[in-house]
């Protein structure tokens, strides 16, 4: 099977979506052809769209922006809609990660992606709404399925199984396995450091 992994974060470094994508890639057996794509601008090359059309499963990894999907990704989806894609036997999956701790925060973003699938005539596979994404970029050394990535590991395995069996499932809403209050304390420390570095006032 040809599988497309699409990183739709606009960040060039320290991206949670990129960290998720690389962990997820490790769950796909070697006999499949896995192609990585980046959608970090408001348009995609038509050559890339052609390549995407040759993949039976598309998995989007993206950040939650203002309770929805980032606007550059909306533009890319719109571009594909305008162009029209003949192959309808494409299963689409999405992993949305949010700054908020509660995975449910991502439900509207996943619903937006599903709506787009319905309009395109594609099959919506399933999604994962993951809360606590910003912690991931500093946890690259921790294997998926271990410690703070335990629940994420089992959710990703469920999604990978759905991809490999060309099937659908219910969306899963999960959080990083890290105490909520500590996550908040660390987030606030990060904000203070950011303010200081940019000479902002508390
Ligand atoms: C413009 C903008 C809007 C955001 N909106 C939300 C939001 O509505 N809810 C939320 O939980 N996080 C929000 N975030 C935080 C991101 O979802 C979070 O930092 C995520 O981990 C970024 O993923 P990435 O590193 O893959 O880009 C927002 C971040 C930015 C830059």
Which descriptor suits the 3D outline?
globular
Ligands, deduplicated:
flavin mononucleotide
Helical stretch count? Answer: 6
Report the structural category. Answer: alpha/beta
**Order of secondary-structure elements:** EHEHEHEHEHEH
- Helicity, as a percent range: 25-40%
Tell me, rounded to a whole number, the average pLDDT.
96
Report the portion of residues in β strands.
15-25%
Task: Describe this structure as you would to a colleague.
There is one protein chain. This protein has six helices and six strands, in the order βαβαβαβαβαβα. It has helices spanning 16-25, 46-53, 71-83, 107-120, 150-164, 180-197; strands at 2-7, 33-38, 57-63, 91-98, 123-131, 172-175. It starts with a strand and ends in a 5-residue tail after the last helix. Strands 2-1-3-4-5-6 form a six-stranded parallel β-sheet. It is of the alpha/beta class and 202 residues long. The protein is 39% helix and 20% strand. Residues 9, 11, 15-17, 63-67, 97-100, 105, 133-134 line the site of flavin mononucleotide.
Relevant terms:
single chain; 202 residues; alpha/beta; 6-stranded parallel β-sheet; 6 strands; 39% helix; globular; binds flavin mononucleotide
Topology:
Blueprint: E1 2-7, H1 16-25, E2 33-38, H2 46-53, E3 57-63, H3 71-83, E4 91-98, H4 107-120, E5 123-131, H5 150-164, E6 172-175, H6 180-197
Parallel strand pairs: 1-2, 1-3, 3-4, 4-5, 5-6
Bound molecules: flavin mononucleotide (FMN).
Quick overview:
By secondary structure, this protein is of the alpha/beta class. The chain is built from 6 helices and 6 strands; from the N terminus they run βαβαβαβαβαβα. The protein has helices spanning 16-25, 46-53, 71-83, 107-120, 150-164, 180-197, and strands spanning 2-7, 33-38, 57-63, 91-98, 123-131, 172-175.
């Amino acid at each position: 099977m040809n599988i497309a992994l699409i990183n739709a974060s606009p960040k060039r470094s320290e991206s949670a979506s990129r960290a998720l994508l690389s962990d997820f890639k490790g769950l796909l057996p070697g006999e499949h052809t896995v192609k990585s794509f980046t959608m970090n601008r408001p348009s995609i090359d038509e050559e890339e769209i052609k390549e995407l059309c040759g993949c039976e499963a598309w998995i989007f990894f993206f950040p939650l922006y203002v309770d929805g999907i980032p606007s550059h990704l909306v533009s890319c989806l719109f571009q594909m809609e305008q162009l029209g894609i003949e192959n309808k036997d494409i299963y689409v999956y999405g992993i949305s990660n949010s700054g908020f701790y509660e995975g449910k925060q991502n439900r509207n973003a996943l619903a937006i992606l599903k709506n787009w699938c319905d309009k395109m005539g594609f099959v919506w596979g399933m999604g994962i709404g993951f809360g606590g994404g910003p912690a991931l970029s500093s946890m690259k050394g921790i294997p998926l399925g271990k410690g703070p990535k335990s629940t994420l590991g089992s959710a990703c395995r469920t999604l990978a199984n759905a991809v490999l069996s060309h099937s659908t499932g219910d969306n899963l809403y999960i959080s990083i396995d890290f105490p909520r209050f500590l996550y908040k304390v660390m987030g606030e420390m990060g904000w203070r450091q950011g303010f200081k570095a940019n000479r902002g006032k508390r």
